[in-house]
Please model this.
Amino acid sequence: LARELDVGVGRTLVALDARETLTRREETPLGRFFAALLRDRVGAQVGLLNSGAIRGNRVIPPGPITKKDVRELLPFANTVTLLEVTGAALRAALERSVDELPRPTGHFLQTAGIQMTVDPARPPGQRVGAIVIEGRALDPGGLYRVAVPDYLARGQDGYSMLSASRVLLAPEDGPGLIETVLDGLAAGRSP
Model:
């Protein structure tokens, strides 16, 4: 088993910082990479990954990435779920993500497909400013395809607004999160 886990599955040209003090309070190249792989795997517009899903609490140096690295970074058996989320619910999820900044929390979201401004000095619930998806301002009444781990789709970590969304790809039908990352690395993608 040790030999199988030590097999290289990809490469990174940059250091991948998975320290909790960083990933749980700001977006990182590693977190954005994982969120992008989720998004792309199921054809979503947006990918969201709770930072508590990322473990290992270390920095992976530039160079090869092994199966062991991936399993240490993502130790849970999550699956990728595709939701249809209203713009208002997406804004609420992003507000939830930053509601305890600057304190690091596992519910802080790593994102892909979103550009947004955040002001941690503002009161919780009013910290997220402009949000842009696919070059357009977020429409509160619009519908967006959002890829998330099944954990978030079930409303865990305070994300009830996601569990109230329409399910397009159920957790039991979605690919595994670890499998999604391994497949992305095998296809030559890197952070």
